[in-house]
Design goal:
Helix content is 5%, strand content 49%. It starts with a helix and ends with a strand. The chain has 365 residues and is mainly beta. Strand 29 and strand 30 form a beta hairpin. The radius of gyration is 29 Å and the shape is elongated.
Length: 365
């Protein structure tokens, strides 16, 4: 047994020696770590939060004596803004950064190639509260109380509705005044439909969690193509357009401006008001240069400036539903469109029995 063990040990040593690196064998060198320069300090001239429209000043200094030949840069983490300077301070208009929670990477590059960086976070708020509105009901129209409304649109006098839920998603054409179904197309049971919009004779539809968007012929509702998307939450919520690009929401404070042909992201806009970022942006509608958005789980609609992301108006729809119109499964307000004849807003909700034609009136309080 001892002889066997010795032979085994010699064989093991031989195997290890054979498998180990040979004398002339080349090894891949380990990557060298970049050397850091003196520790960078960044000071903001105003305490956060700051008002949208203000200009902030970022000043740079070092704990240690630094070489005089230094260049500085700041970059917004989402890549939407960048600036460089040889001065030890940078003035930045907040209108270039947008609103909400902002994160900047500040970097110093020395003449000898060394670098030092810091991150600076701040919050940018709207300087004023949004204007407050309520809704006055002008007319009521029938609405299918079995419809889990996700998208609403009017085109050529016809009301288009997209519904949700697995096994219950469908696209419909309806008469506004009667609620009569003119055309209907059910979708596959594994599809949970979300927002819809009509652009360039095509109907676009988002889906909830499958990261898929469908394109249909607006007349026949025949599916023509399919796209994928990659939003922050991984979900599709609301959809509209501004006559040139699509605009989508995903439940986060972000709005996504998309190429209608490829569905590639062209711009990302953060929505904010005087209190901070506005989340749960749901069904969308674009009207007269503004974006209207339902706030999910609430009876509120916000009006958004599509250039800045600032909420300019807030509409409370509470109280528009009479007790007699309530349904057993009634869920939240969701669905915004505009009447083609009167220009008034049309609103409804998930499992609501009515479609309401409403008018904005100043809030009573």
């Amino acid at each position: 047994m001892r002889v066997i063990r010795v032979i085994g040990a010699l064989l093991l040593v031989g195997i290890i020696s054979f498998c180990g690196p040979q004398k002339n064998e080349q090894r891949t060198p380990s990557p060298k770590k970049s050397k850091k320069g003196p520790s960078l300090k960044v000071r903001l001239d105003k305490p956060s939060p700051v008002g949208f429209g203000d200009t902030i000043q970022l000043s740079f200094s070092f704990n240690d004596t630094a070489a005089q030949d230094v260049s500085y840069s700041i970059t917004q983490i989402d890549g939407s803004y960048a600036q460089e300077t040889k001065s030890n301070s940078i003035a930045v208009p907040t209108t270039m950064l947008g609103g909400g929670n902002i994160r900047l990477k500040c970097e110093a590059v020395f003449s000898n190639g060394l670098k030092s960086s810091r991150y600076k976070e701040l919050e940018i708020l709207a300087p004023e509260k949004p204007r407050a509105w309520e809704l006055k009901v002008l007319k009521k129209y029938p609405h299918d109380r079995e419809s889990f409304t996700q998208g609403l649109e009017v085109e050529d006098g016809v009301l288009y509705e997209g519904t949700g839920n697995y096994g219950g998603t469908r696209l419909r054409k309806l008469e506004i005044e009667s609620g009569k179904v003119l055309q209907e197309m059910p979708l596959e049971d594994d599809i949970f439909g979300e927002g819809i919009t009509i652009f360039d004779d095509k109907l676009y539809q988002l889906t909830y969690k499958s990261s898929r968007a469908f394109v249909y012929d607006v007349e026949t509702l025949e599916r023509q193509s399919e796209h994928s998307f990659n939003f922050h939450t991984g979900e599709g919520w609301g959809l509209t357009h501004n006559d040139s690009v699509l605009i989508a929401s995903d439940g986060s404070p972000n709005l996504y401006f998309l190429d209608p042909a490829s569905f590639s992201e062209l711009k990302r806009l953060k929505v904010f008001d005087n209190l901070g970022e506005v989340e749960l942006l749901n069904e969308l509608e674009y009207r007269n240069g503004s974006i209207y958005a339902n706030i999910y789980t609430s009876a509120e609609i916000v009006i958004i400036d599509p250039k800045t992301g600032m909420v300019t108006d807030r509409i409370v729809a509470r109280g528009i539903v009479d007790q007699a119109d309530a349904t057993r499964n009634m869920d939240v307000l969701n669905g915004i469109a505009f009447h083609p004849k009167t220009g008034n807003m049309l609103v409804t909700g998930k499992y609501w029995s009515k479609l309401y034609e409403v008018q904005l009136v100043p809030a009573s309080n």
